[in-house]
Write a structure and sequence with these properties.
Helix content: 10-25%
Shape: globular
CATH topology of the largest domain: D-Amino Acid Oxidase, Chain A, domain 2
Largest sheet: 9 strands, mixed
Number of domains: 2
CATH class of the largest domain: Alpha Beta
Distance between the termini: 37 Å
Order of helices and strands: EHEEHEEHEHEEHEEEEEEEEEHEEEH
Structural class: alpha+beta
Number of helices: 7
Radius of gyration: 21 Å
Bound molecules: flavin-adenine dinucleotide
Amino acid sequence: MTNPSGGFDVAIIGLGAMGSMAALELARRGQRVIGFDRFHPPHPFGSSHGKSRIIREAYFEHPQYVPLVRRAYERWNALEQDSGETLLVPTGGLMIGPPDGTLVSGARQSAIVHQLPYEELPAPEVRRRFPVFQLEAHEVGLLEPRAGVLFPEAAIGAALRLARGAGAELHFGERAIEWLGGSSILVRTERGDYHADQVVVAAGAWMGTGIARASLALQVARQPLHWFSPVGDPAPTAPRRMPVFIWEWEPGGMFYGFPDFGDGVKVAIHHQGEPAHPDTVNRVVMAEEVERLREVMKARTPALNGELRDSSVCLYTNTPDEDFLVDRSPADPRVILASPCSGHGFKFAPAIGEILADLVQGRPPRFDLSPFRIDRAGLRG
Ligand SMILES: Cc1cc2nc3c(=O)[nH]c(=O)nc-3n(C[C@H](O)[C@H](O)[C@H](O)COP(=O)(O)OP(=O)(O)OC[C@H]3O[C@@H](n4cnc5c(N)ncnc54)[C@H](O)[C@@H]3O)c2cc1C
């Protein structure tokens, strides 16, 4: 569906987490949407694979994210209803670490500022309630009830299916090469030229490769993740018994995990991944990487440290301050850049889709987007 001038209202480059939700929101609002993805989403080459993502509300990174995640919960529920699929399973979330560490104190701060329900449990109480977590005496667990698990591949698949149903034209396996400003924006792909009044670039780990037409200080990091069989009785690792968790085991060093949804418990280290390029990244997980994680898990989560069932490599796209990028392009204000999510963006995807649709339609933003501006300190490379 093109507009009277023969072009589209909006072209979306990248149909992963952010692009798929933007496509759905814009198509629903009657915009003529064309979207491109270099692969066939949902796919395992970007940042949105690996079967599960944590959603949590007592946001240790900063209280500014809480209103955004609250809106995301509403939109996830709506997407579940519209798609008829289960996309979010509440499990509760446990933030473990020293009470004054980055993780626990940050989560507590968000909970206090936004009056979120939470419990701060001493180590013996955590061990009693959740025997898979063997805290040291100086550690505590901050339990937040609304945290849970999202299913990323299912969510992206659902959004794209619904977007198509609402009229979006989606081209998979078609890489966008460049965009050029004129009376409309020309998007040149491997297969042809397309015109649109506006463009959303949501290219994830490829944002720094030229398609954004902005010099950005982004770092793509290779993040291995692993599925293990529980050791002994699997009952305490069931989703109804085991919350998702993040554990700050050394200052700033965190690992996280999920209960067993049938493939084993998934556990990974947050950040600390090697710098990588999305086109050449080594996608094979090495034995040393598994051993490194096992070493961290050994005394803390021995019941999760069983047989390795699978591993995968995923990509974080990190900004220097680990906040997001959602802003208009300095090269052309009709182009909106949205993606680098520094390893914590998935939970917000439907809320960001809504923000992107508002920006495209020139509506006032419903959230303070200043932390995500392109001209903030350090982001322009
Ligand atoms: C291991 C791991 C664990 C994570 N855990 C969590 C978590 O628990 N909770 C959470 O909230 N977040 C988490 N995240 C972060 C979250 O998954 C990402 O922030 C989010 O998925 C990024 O979405 P995106 O749309 O920016 O990128 P993607 O979903 O990767 O989409 C980008 C798309 O752009 C396409 N593309 C790129 N270049 C082009 C081009 N030139 N032409 C056409 N298409 C193009 C790609 O093929 C891709 O499909 C995690 C990330 C990883 C890697």
